[in-house]
Amino acid sequence: MTTDRIYLTGYRGTGKTTVGKLISAELATECVDLDHVIEQAAGKTIREIFAAGGEDLFRDWESRCLAQVAADRSQGRVISLGGGAILREQNRDVIRQTGVCIWLTASPDVIARRLADDQTTGQRRPALTELSPVEEIRELLARREPLYRQSADLILASDAKSPQQLARDAVHWLDQHGGQSSM
Ligand SMILES: Nc1ncnc2c1ncn2[C@@H]1O[C@H](COP(=O)(O)OP(=O)(O)OP(=O)(O)O)[C@@H](O)[C@H]1O
Ligand SMILES: O=C(O)C1=C[C@@H](O)[C@@H](O)[C@H](O)C1
Ligand SMILES: [Mg+2]
């Protein structure tokens, strides 16, 4: 296991972007947000990429950008992934081979509340199913959970902790970096 790169995974709204920035500040390194890299590379917002070619097109951009970011250490040591980046096996392989992965969890109700309150949801989080927002979260979380779990070296429950506390927990674990653990 190498801590060369620190990946953050988890469902939409679990705080990957927010906590990733705080971890990188604590470690005095840069934070790369994969969703942002994709938008820059495509010259489109995530919603526009979905509108142009659906989720498949977005996933192709995501795999390409992840491979680039993973291969180029100068872009930053902390990498906040998108919520679905662990869906493709090739992406999970890249993550495992190049760094450690921290899985941020939250309950469906907390996720739904955070997404509804976040002004950027409209641009960055197009619907992934025809289900209602909370049903979509429940359904996709259940489907993705085994993939998040198999990718994770550390699991952090975010429901009742501030982003600052989660970043401190992550840095504390990184100082000691052992096998898979939960806090
Ligand atoms: N631990 C937390 N406690 C309270 N609010 C939080 C916490 N973590 C994140 N938030 C809030 O939830 C919203 C979503 O956070 P953020 O964008 O970091 O999630 P994300 O996991 O990166 O989502 P996405 O996968 O869509 O990129 C933001 O408004 C953020 O301030
Ligand atoms: O959970 C997902 O599938 C996604 C999460 C976001 O971070 C973006 O990567 C995009 O909206 C897809
Ligand atoms: Mg994010």
Describe the structure.
This protein is of the alpha/beta class and 183 residues long. It has a single domain, classed as Rossmann fold (3-Layer(aba) Sandwich). It is built from eight helices and six strands. A six-stranded parallel β-sheet has the order 2-3-1-4-5-6, with helices on both faces. It is globular and about 45 Å long.
Question: Any key phrases for this structure?
Answer:
183 residues, alpha/beta, Rossmann fold, six-stranded parallel sheet, 6 strands, 56% helix, globular, binds adenosine-5'-triphosphate, binds (3R,4S,5R)-3,4,5-trihydroxycyclohex-1-ENE-1-carboxylic acid, binds magnesium ion
Brief characterization of the structure:
This protein has one domain: P-loop containing nucleotide triphosphate hydrolases (Rossmann fold, 3-Layer(aba) Sandwich), CATH 3.40.50.
**Helix and strand string, N-terminal first?**
EHEHHEHEHHHEHE
User: What's the CATH topology name?
Assistant: Rossmann fold
Low-pLDDT windows of residues: none
Secondary-structure arrangement, i.e. CATH architecture: 3-Layer(aba) Sandwich
How many separate structural domains?
Answer: 1
Q: Percent of residues in helical segments? A: 55-70%
Approximately how much beta-strand content do the residues carry? 5-15%
Helical segment tally?
A: 8
Strand neighbour order, sheet with most strands: 2-3-1-4-5-6
